[in-house]
TrEMBL record:
Annotated PANTHER family: TRANSCRIPTIONAL REGULATORY PROTEIN NARL-RELATED, TWO-COMPONENT RESPONSE REGULATOR
Classification via InterPro entries: CheY-like_superfamily, NreC/VraR/RcsB-like_REC, Sig_transdc_resp-reg_C-effctor, Sig_transdc_resp-reg_receiver, Tscrpt_reg_LuxR_C, WalR-like
SUPFAM superfamilies: C-terminal effector domain of the bipartite response regulators (SSF46894), CheY-like (SSF52172)
Alphabetical keyword list: DNA-binding, Phosphoprotein, Transcription, Transcription regulation
Domain HTH luxR-type: start-end pairs: 146-211
Lineage: Bacteria, Bacillati, Actinomycetota, Actinomycetes, Kitasatosporales
CDD domains recorded: LuxR_C_like, REC_NarL-like
The name this protein goes by in its record: Response regulator transcription factor
Length: 216
């Protein structure tokens, strides 16, 4: 993975925590979002951890640039000091897959990276719900509503989207609906394709902003 933060101590702390894990390798570091694209193209990390606030190019713009210019982009985890931060929500809207607090415990950091890499569950669903409630336009986002109308989700797909928004993993959704995990994966893939969403996080943000799912 790639670490991008303008504070050397933060990068060093994250590196120490992550490289202690046998299944995680830190391939590189950068001090600003402006360095992300060339590093991603050279190193091809599976996950990029981006500080949401940096002096030249912040995590929001770096996320947009990365998704706009890099084919098959990595998963993006924005790193922040404050949980209830409009910058974090804007990064999620821009396409980030999740966020991580700088004060998180080592086990939480490792769990977040693994969960983002796997992509089968929503990271910190209660926090995403709180952010959507505060900054998500109260279900009045026209683009999100149009995306839901165009999607024409089936009843089962809509049910899966609501369970995704609650943070349930594919296995948990399968247990709730009494179906196989592969069936759930197919439904999730259909939901993402119909919404034009890159991942679960973006699908859930669309669901909240359209009013299809209430964030409260």
């Amino acid at each position: 993975m790639l670490l991008v933060d303008d504070e050397p101590l933060v990068r060093a702390g994250l590196r120490a925590v992550l490289e202690a894990q046998p299944d995680i390798e830190v391939a590189g570091e950068a001090a600003d979002g402006a360095a992300v694209i060339p590093l991603v193209r050279r190193l091809r990390p599976d996950v990029v951890a981006l500080d949401v606030r940096m002096p030249l190019l912040d995590g929001i713009e770096a996320t947009r640039a990365l998704l706009r210019t890099v084919a098959d982009p990595p998963k993006i985890l924005v790193v922040t000091t404050f949980e209830n931060d409009e910058y974090v929500y804007e990064a999620l809207r821009a396409g980030a897959d999740g966020f991580l607090l700088k004060r998180a415990r080592p086990a939480e950091i490792v769990h977040a990276v693994r969960l983002i890499a796997e992509g089968e569950s929503l990271l910190f669903p209660a926090s995403v719900r709180q952010l959507a409630a505060e900054y998500g336009e109260g279900g009045g986002n026209r683009a999100a509503r149009a995306a839901l109308e165009r999607a024409r989700l089936t009843g089962r797909e809509g049910e899966v989207l609501r369970l995704m928004a609650r943070g349930l993993s594919n296995a948990e959704i399968a247990a709730r609906l009494v179906v196989g995990t592969e069936t759930v994966k197919s439904h999730v893939s259909a939901v993402l394709a119909k919404l034009g969403a890159r991942d679960r996080t973006q699908a859930v943000i669309t669901a909240y902003e359209s009013g299809y799912v209430a964030p409260g």
